[in-house]
Amino acid sequence: MKSLTDLTFDNRFARLGDAFSTEVLPEPIAEPRLVVASPAAMALLDLDPAEAECEEFAQLFAGHKLWHEAEPRAMVYSGHQFGVYNPRLGDGRGLLLGEVVNAAGEHWDLHLNGAGQTPYSRMGDGRAVLRSSIREFLASEHLHALGIPTSRALCVTASNTPVWREKKESAAMLLRLARSHVRFGHFEYFYYTRQPEQLKQLGEHVLSCHFPDCLEQEQPYLALFREVVERNAALIAHWQAYGFCHGVMNSDNMSILGITFDYGPYAFLDDFDANHICNHSDDSGRYSFSNQVPIAQWNLAALGQALTAFVEIEALREALGLFLPLYQAHYLDLMRRRLGLTDAAEGDEALIQRLLQLMQGSAVDYTNFFRALGDSAPEQALARLCEDFVDLAGFDAWAADYQARCAADDGGQEARRARMHGVNPKYILRNYLAQQVIEAAEQGDYGPVRELHAVLSRPFDEQPGMERYAERPPEWGKHLAISCSS
Ligand code: AMP
Ligand code: MG
Q1: Other CB atoms closer than 10 Å to residue 164's CB: what's the count?
Q2: How far apart are CA 412 and CA 8, in angstroms?
Q3: 8, 179, 370, 444: least surrounded by Cβ within 10 Å?
Q4: Are 41 and 100 spatial neighbours (Cβ–Cβ below 8 Å)?
Q5: Which are the contacts of 464, defined by CB distance < 8 A and separation ≥ 6?
Q6: Contact assessment for residue 154 and residue 41, using Cβ atoms and an 8 Å cutoff
Q7: Does the beta carbon of 124 lie inside 6 Å of ligand 1?
Q8: Which one of 93, 165, 246 would you pick to mutate in the ligand 1 pocket, going by the greatest count of ligand atoms within 8 A of its CB?
Q9: What would the pLDDT profile of 435-467 be if each residue is shown by its tens digit?
Q10: Contact, 378 vs 406, CB < 8 A?
Q11: Cα-flanking dihedrals φ and ψ of residue 478, to 5°?
């Protein structure tokens, strides 16, 4: 276990030089205090969880102090936002403080979000509000606990620095951890600004630091693209299987590592709705829940375009063609597990589609459905669950087919429950829960956000006394409008 002051830095991205990032010092926020810290994320840096109690902790993560070895820099990138190319984005309100090397030899980027203005701030104030910082913190640590690849969050600090959004709010900072902060938009930036040397330097950095196996291949950049396609197929399959809606799948918010990245107006589905649009600013529904699959492929095509600098377009096209079948296979596998099926059968895809169609016209809580399905033996579980479906005859027919599919499983209900509860969370990050703890935190009460974080860190466990966190949203919590403003 290490203390805060013994972290070891090795700032590989900073060493790429000024074409890639600009040195900027964090602008501290006033009277910082720790809102919440993640012991699991601290462990990635070998930090003793008790370090979060030190005064220095809030100081470091609110921009008041800096490690000697840190080299804070704002990264430049571009990207396609809502399908339109924006030639210059970049870290407008976040800084890469440096890369910490842990005892296992892993590099972890320390990214301080809300650290003040940078050359990439455009019209923005460089700040992040408490609301959005808490939302990213909760989601990062919760998705990780669900087994969904994601950037991580170490802590949130609150302050008395005022910031103006639709109303007066207060500035906060979030310390994000990721093995890399390189986005699809990094490649797009150097491709469209016609900087082939820098594009190559970026590619070599990504290959050697993050995809060393691809360097062994005959065509390393093609191998890299294939790997990114594969990782995204797996990632999006997890989002769709668990009802996660990202909300702003711009290519600058897509990580080259295939992890969930840059949390904005995200949501987990409460009642199942394939057409759900979680981003209030997304008028056309470009980033609706079901569109996440084709949009991921669209973003991969945008990345592929930048890689035409290195690879024949036909080979890239072929690799891109792997996305849908790989996604389908991952998704089927995850959904079979969620349904408690232990083997694969011909009609499984249709069985899953029929269930979702029945849910679509009803008001079925997507998370609680699967949890309840495993709670008791199929017959009893289905008898109880049918009440939520509008098309009762349709549900009965589905239930009969599902039961027939379960008949091959002779492991008994105990084993079935353990297996299903291991993949079907009891607790999910519902927007209304986030909203409640945000309102408390805005009043200076950090108890609720800490408790919610702790509950969501063990989403599959029964947690006696915490059942209220598994409840469906009350009427006011069903239609919360979450916008891009953060
Ligand atoms: P996002 O919607 O958070 O993915 O951000 C899109 C772009 O806007 C990125 O380049 C951000 O750095 C920048 N940005 C977002 N909010 C702010 C802000 N308050 N101040 C400066 N830049 C911002
Ligand atoms: Mg972004």
Answers
A1: 10
A2: 51
A3: 444
A4: no
A5: none
A6: yes
A7: yes
A8: 93
A9: 999 999 999 999 999 999 999 999 999 999 999
A10: yes
A11: -80, -30
Q: Write down how long the chain is.
A: 486
Task: Give me 123's structure tokens.
Answer: 């019209």
DSSP code at position 251: G
330-346 pLDDT, tens per residue?
999 999 999 999 999 99
| Cα gap 281→262, rounded to integer Å | 16
In the Cβ-directed half-sphere of 69, how many Cα atoms lie within 13 Å? Answer: 14
Q: Which ligand is nearest to the CA of 89?
A: 1
Distance 121 CA to ligand 1 centre (A): 7
10 Å Cβ neighbour count for 257?
A: 23
CB of 459 closer than 8 Å to CB of 145: yes
What gap in Å lies between CA 165 and CA 314, rounded to an integer? Answer: 46
Which member of 91, 109, 252, 270 is catalytic?
252
- Reading the block at residue 217, the tokens are 């291949």
Q: From CA 293, how far away is CA 295, in angstroms rounded?
A: 5
